[in-house]
């Protein structure tokens, strides 16, 4: 890969900015000053430093975000803030996108990556990747609801959902539940509860496949996946 392309891809400025860095002698490849922007480097084996700092090149980026409410799961929107707007510039340059979507008012686990193949696998209906949500429900959730969800419920448009696994954490006028589903229809969790005459007042995704939301991430915060987390998703 050309040295100017590599540095530009990593967000060290435009090709023009990068040319200036090279001209100024700020870039070393294997301890040798490189001024030619066309110089080819192997990101796997060559050591590239910029102003004495070693540069790590990576093709793909994998980020776990705790999505806050009020933010759109999209790469751009003319009216609302998107999850991409929450990323640092050094991560935005990789052009990641959200894998699947969380409703605007829903919080929790969102995976962002520029790895299209992995995203496609995780979203493929054939894969049945389970997604688990924590929700607060207006109304008493009962054993009858557990049975109904186990069979699948009919949504407002006549669609019969695949079975969902409902766990009641606390039952009362307000109930706390966890629901695991393997599909991602529009507003699915809310519509499943509507189908049994109840209303979701708070919704948060806590896991997707083997990936579990990191409790230490505040709303709007994100971090790169660990190698173990990434391997878990790839093996799914």
UniProtKB/TrEMBL annotation:
Keywords: Isomerase, RNA-binding. Residues 1-59 form the RNA-binding S4 domain. It comes from the Bacteria. It is an enzyme of class 5 (isomerase). Pfam families: PseudoU_synth_2, S4. Its EC number is 5.4.99.-. The keyword DNA-binding does not apply. GO terms for molecular function: RNA binding; rRNA pseudouridine synthase activity. One of its GO terms (cellular component) is cytosol. GO terms for biological process: enzyme-directed rRNA pseudouridine synthesis. Gene3D superfamilies: Alpha-L RNA-binding motif, Pseudouridine synthase I, catalytic domain, N-terminal subdomain, RNA-binding S4 domain. Belongs to the pseudouridine synthase RsuA family. This is Pseudouridine synthase. It comes from Bacillus canaveralius.
């Amino acid at each position: 890969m050309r040295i100017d392309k590599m540095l530009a891809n990593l967000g060290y400025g435009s090709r023009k900015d990068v040319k200036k860095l090279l001209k100024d002698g700020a870039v070393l490849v294997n301890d040798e000053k490189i001024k030619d922007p066309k110089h080819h480097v192997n990101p796997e084996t060559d050591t590239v430093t910029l102003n004495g700092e070693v540069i790590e090149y990576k093709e793909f980026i994998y980020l776990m975000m705790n999505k806050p409410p009020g933010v759109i799961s999209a790469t751009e929107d003319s009216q609302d803030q998107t999850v991409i707007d929450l990323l640092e510039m050094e991560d935005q340059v990789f052009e990641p996108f959200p894998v699947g979507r969380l409703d605007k008012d829903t919080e929790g686990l969102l995976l962002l990556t520029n790895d299209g193949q992995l995203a496609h696998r995780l979203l493929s209906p054939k894969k049945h990747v389970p997604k688990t949500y924590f929700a607060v429900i207006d109304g008493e959730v009962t054993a009858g609801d557990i049975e109904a969800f186990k069979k699948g419920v009919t949504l407002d448009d006549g669609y019969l959902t695949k079975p969902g696994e409902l766990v009641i954490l606390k039952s009362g006028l307000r109930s706390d539940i966890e629901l695991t589903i393997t599909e991602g229809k529009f507003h699915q969790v809310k519509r499943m509860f509507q189908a049994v005459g109840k209303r979701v007042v708070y919704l948060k995704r806590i896991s997707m496949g083997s990936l579990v939301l990191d409790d230490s991430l505040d709303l709007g915060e994100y971090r790169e996946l660990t190698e173990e987390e990434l391997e878990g998703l790839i093996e799914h």
